[in-house]
Task: structure prediction
Amino acid sequence: MQGIGRVGGPGAATPAGKVRPGKGGFSLGGTGTAGNAAEAHGAAAVAAPGLGLLALQSGHGDAERDREGRRRADSLLEDLAGLQREMLGGTADPARLTRLAALAQGEAGADPALREVVEAITLRAAIELARRGG
Result:
């Protein structure tokens, strides 16, 4: 079994202190003088905090979108199961159709796999609404 430490490719990590000879790498396009290195270091120091904050904000937003998508999917599944029970029992709750219609619009999540599942559940709810004229 291959572990994650074995991931390779053009940007693969090397053991600490070792440099791969002959491999291309990042370049600032300068002549390699100390002035260019200082400028590059200064620019990186200024940009790094802003990039870290953006990464944190986007990660928090994605997690919140995923939570909302899961919550919506759970509610849709509960109402679809209730609709099925009502159909088998010969009753109908118009409020359930209203809830299904409201839940059909909303967040599907940031995670592609979650989004696919939520969209499939939403499609099922839309079909049930269309069958019942909702």
Summary: Confidence is low (pLDDT under 50) at residues 1-15. DSSP finds three helices and no strands in the chain. The CA atoms of residues 127 and 134 lie 10 Å apart.
